Amino acid sequence: MAAPVFLCPRMSLQALFFDAAGTLIRPAEPVGQTYARLASRHGVQAAPDDLMQAFRAVWKATPPPLHPPGVPAADDDRGWWRGLVDQVFARVLGAPLPAQTLDGLFDELYQHYAEPAAWSLFPDVVPALNDLSRDHRLLVLSNFDRRLRSILAGHDLTRFFEQIVISSEVGAAKPHPRMFQAALTAVGLERQDCLHIGDDARCDAEGAAQAEIHFFAVQRPESGLDLLVQKVRAGAYSGLRSALL
Questions:
Q1: Residues 225, 18: contact at Cβ < 8 Å?
Q2: What is the pLDDT of residues 98-109, one digit of tens each?
Q3: Chain segment 109-134, per-residue pLDDT in tens
Q4: Fold of 15-24+122-234
Q5: Three-state SS for 106?
Q6: Hey, what CATH topology would domain 28-117 get?
C-alpha cells in the first residue's frame, strides 16, 4: 500500500469515516483455523493453512456484492458469503461440498462471525476514538452486513459513532462511490471536510480517491490510529499528500 494520505492545511476536518475489519477489529482466531475447526464438526478435514490461502485467493477474486440503487439485498448479503465459503472449500478439497454439508457448515461459520467474541480490537482503537470523538463526528463505513452492529456493540464501540454505514444496506461495497456518498449524506458535509480511515489499498484508498475524500492509510505498526490522533492534534498535515490534489 502507498504511504498514508492525509489532509492538507486548508481543510476543516469535521467528520471521520472508519473502516471496520482490519482497522477497528480483526478476527480473534486466524480465519483458516476457524474454518478448519468448524469444518471438522461436519466431517470435513482440511488444513488451516490451505484454507487460509484459499480464503485470500477467493476473497481477492470474488466481486463484492452490488445491487441496484435503493434495492439492497433482501438476505443482508448472506447468499454472497455462502458462495464465498463454497468456493473456499471447493478450492481446497478439489470438489464442492455436498449441499447439506455446506448448509450446516456455513450456518455455523456465519453465526460464529456474528459473535463479538470472534473479533478482537486493535490496542490503539479505544484510546484514539476516545480522543477524536471529543470534537469530531465519527462514522463507521464498512463492507459488512448487519452483524457488524452487534459486534461493535459487544466491544462497547457504538457509543463513539454517530452512524454505522454498511455495504449490505447501501447495496454496494467500497470502492463503489455509492458507499462514500452514503457517508457524506449521513453527515451532511462537504467531502473536503471529511476523512476516511482504512487499511485496504483498493476498497479504502482507491475508493476514497475516486470519491475525492481525504484518506489516511492504516498500516500497523508504522501507521496506526495513534499516529492519526497525533496528526490531527498537531495539525501536522504538511508533507503528506491530499487525496484531492
A1: no
A2: 999 999 999 999
A3: 999 999 999 999 999 999 999 999 99
A4: Rossmann fold (3.40.50)
A5: helix
A6: DNA polymerase; domain 1 (1.10.150)
